[in-house]
Amino acid sequence: MHALLRKRDVRAAIGWIGVVWLSPLFGALLYFGFGVNRVHRKAQRLRGLKSPRLYGARGRGADRAMERLKTAVGAITRVDLEEGAVEAVLQSGDEAYPQMLAAIDAATTSVSLSTFIFRADGPGLRFIEALARAHRRGVAVRVLIDGMGGGFFLSPAYRRLRTRGVPAARFLHSIWPWKMPLLDLRLHKKALIVDGELAFIGGLNIAAENVLAEPARHPVRDTHFRLVGGVVQQIADSFDDDWAFATGEDTPERTRPPARETPGAPARAVASGPDHAVDQLALVLLSAITAARKTIRIATPYFLPEEQLITALQLAALRGVEVDLVMPAENNHRMVAWASAAHIRPLIEAGCRLWRSPPPFDHSKLMTVDDEWCLIGSANWDARSLRLNFELTVELYDAALAARLSALIDAKRGDPVTLADIDGRMFAVKLRDATARLLSPYL
């Protein structure tokens, strides 16, 4: 009954009902151990219930596509638009790490860092030392590392931080069997907030493979962003929610820094994950696709969205929107690449253009619409980011930035993916890819 009434995903509801029907006792135990979303209930208790209200843009011009998109995303997220400015678009750790480390060293009041992967290698040790220096000089430092991506049992970076006295926590980390269901829910956010007025967000983890100038077995290209403006406080609020969720600690009351006089554009942080009542990220993506009139450009390392997003992209292409999707030619997760290959034929048939970016593996997550709107942050186009992971993205209504990111996405385009490529696979490969696609909700 609980699965029938509470599960948003029809496939999940049918699956769990089938398991319980086949084995009432064992199936019920499995469901209450693994199928009940306790994260959302806990988040509601910590966050409190928000009363509904209308957010976003209203008034004259509200019939324009971008104005309607502002209102839609505001209603989905219940977060107001703020001013936000991207001061720098940073390529991989080569450009991002020096600026992030300098910001930590310049911090005077607070440093908050959340990350999925934090290795205790060359770059990681530099971050550990910078965070320890900030802590010693009295800066309020908090570091939140995903319990799985941070190394699970060993967690070397976490342990080194704790040894140096730096307040650090692991998100949904446990070795106890009764907490095992939460292992599938990961903190995928990458955010550094300094003094409440400067933030770095994007897809960049903290690991040596993200520095392309240093030899690595599996180098990773990525894109990160340096932001200022009122939207930084929304990013900080998201970190506070995650810290309270992971540690149970109340966030101390802080005086907001005075707003910096920085020219900016309307911007909004979009936090998403199983702690929200609706699949916020999927709804934001659907709203943006629907708003498109001329172009949609997407760069993502993993492309395994659910059918409604596939359909929305098809419809956009069929109504004349230029849809360009860039994915890596070489993927670091083979099964994801296999499943994706079985997923994309309908898009090509509808007129979407798909491209492979040349090596090294490109982990960037970028989206632009009509060179007026862009979405940046940590989220991929897969079931994990859309439903299971705790993600952080920022939307910006900034034409100059959108045009710049569109050019960046275009520059990543390598060989096109054609119907001939899809049809030319050997039968065994098609069978393998189709089988992997069945597992796409769990990849």
From TrEMBL:
<dbReference type="Pfam" id="PF13091">
    <property type="entry name" value="PLDc_2"/>
</dbReference>
<dbReference type="InterPro" id="IPR001736">
    <property type="entry name" value="PLipase_D/transphosphatidylase"/>
</dbReference>
<feature type="domain" description="PLD phosphodiesterase">
    <location>
        <begin position="183"/>
        <end position="210"/>
    </location>
</feature>
<dbReference type="GO" id="GO:0005576">
    <property type="term" value="C:extracellular region"/>
</dbReference>
<feature type="domain" description="PLD phosphodiesterase">
    <location>
        <begin position="363"/>
        <end position="385"/>
    </location>
</feature>
<protein>
    <recommendedName>
        <fullName>Phospholipase D</fullName>
    </recommendedName>
</protein>
<dbReference type="GO" id="GO:0032049">
    <property type="term" value="P:cardiolipin biosynthetic process"/>
</dbReference>
<keyword id="KW-0472">Membrane</keyword>
<keyword id="KW-0808">Transferase</keyword>
<comment type="function">
    <text>Could be a virulence factor.</text>
</comment>
<keyword id="KW-0964">Secreted</keyword>
<dbReference type="InterPro" id="IPR025202">
    <property type="entry name" value="PLD-like_dom"/>
</dbReference>
<keyword id="KW-1133">Transmembrane helix</keyword>
<keyword id="KW-0812">Transmembrane</keyword>
<feature type="region of interest" description="Disordered">
    <location>
        <begin position="248"/>
        <end position="271"/>
    </location>
</feature>
<dbReference type="GO" id="GO:0008808">
    <property type="term" value="F:cardiolipin synthase activity"/>
</dbReference>
<feature type="transmembrane region" description="Helical">
    <location>
        <begin position="12"/>
        <end position="34"/>
    </location>
</feature>
<dbReference type="GO" id="GO:0016020">
    <property type="term" value="C:membrane"/>
</dbReference>
